[in-house]
Design goal:
CATH topology of the largest domain in chain B: Immunoglobulin-like
Strand content of chain B: over 45%
Largest sheet of chain B: 4 strands, antiparallel
CATH topology of the largest domain in chain A: Immunoglobulin-like
Largest sheet of chain A: 4 strands, antiparallel
Mean pLDDT of chain A: 89
Radius of gyration of chain B: 20 Å
Low-confidence stretches of chain A: none
Structural class of chain A: mainly beta
CATH superfamily of the largest domain in chain B: Immunoglobulins
CATH class of the largest domain in chain B: Mainly Beta
Number of strands of chain A: 9
Number of strands of chain B: 10
Strand order of the largest sheet of chain B: 3-10-5-6
CATH class of the largest domain in chain A: Mainly Beta
Shape of chain A: elongated
CATH architecture of the largest domain in chain B: Sandwich
Distance between the termini of chain B: 28 Å
Number of domains of chain A: 2
Oligomer: heterodimer
Number of domains of chain B: 2
Helix content of chain A: under 10%
Strand content of chain A: over 45%
Largest interface: A-B, 39 and 32 residues
Order of helices and strands of chain A: EEEEEEEEE
Amino acid sequence: MIGLKISKQGYNVLTTGNANLTFNSEIATHSIYNIIQSSITSGNSSITINHNLGYIPKVWIFVVLNDGSNDYFARIPRADVFFNGFDYYITSTTIVIQRNFTSGTSYFRVIIFTRAPTL
Amino acid sequence: MAIKMLVSKPGKDVLTSNSPDDFYLHSDYPLLKVHSYGTFSFNVAIGQTTVYHNLGYRPYVLVFSQAVLDDSGNVSSEYYQHDWTISGATVMWLGETRIYTDRIVIGVEQSNAARGGTVYGFYYIFKDEVT
């Protein structure tokens, strides 16, 4: 088996520890499979996104919100104690984003990673 | 023809594997790259701290912090992803990270009068853009 290691500048790739490697082919990385813009439109409480990877990938989802002056992104899940609530779940073929209200349109950025723990 | 670089997992044939999960490195799929990282602390009565990244776009961000545990604002010894909600008997707490094009705002909001201790945490801001 052939491997690949890349060290930080100033560190010997043959002897340094993993903390000083920018890449080590023996260790899993956070690779981005796809970034999808999606939305839940007015009158609906969920949206289904197909990824069709055949396994359950790691996913991060951000909702686009506004502080009264500027848009900002916030990670979901987001409980509804103070604000409207958002949640999601992942299957081997889809990502389903849900919200606990139906008025207005909610916009999302969905980051799908290549990595998946074996379930 | 585009040149690609692929490193497969042990036991996976780099030439024939076709699942993205079979690779530790695949030049079709970008890796997260760290822009900056650090630690923070603030009193929850003040409510927030701001970290400037000046990237000009909204990047991926990971933030972990202690969580507020109760009405008095006592904080946990362990760290949680900083997107938490705690419901005490009379006070509700929300830990939230807001990502802007020039900064992130790491905050704690509460439903009653300001009180509580100091929250410690750490963050990673990545070069990669949430488009």
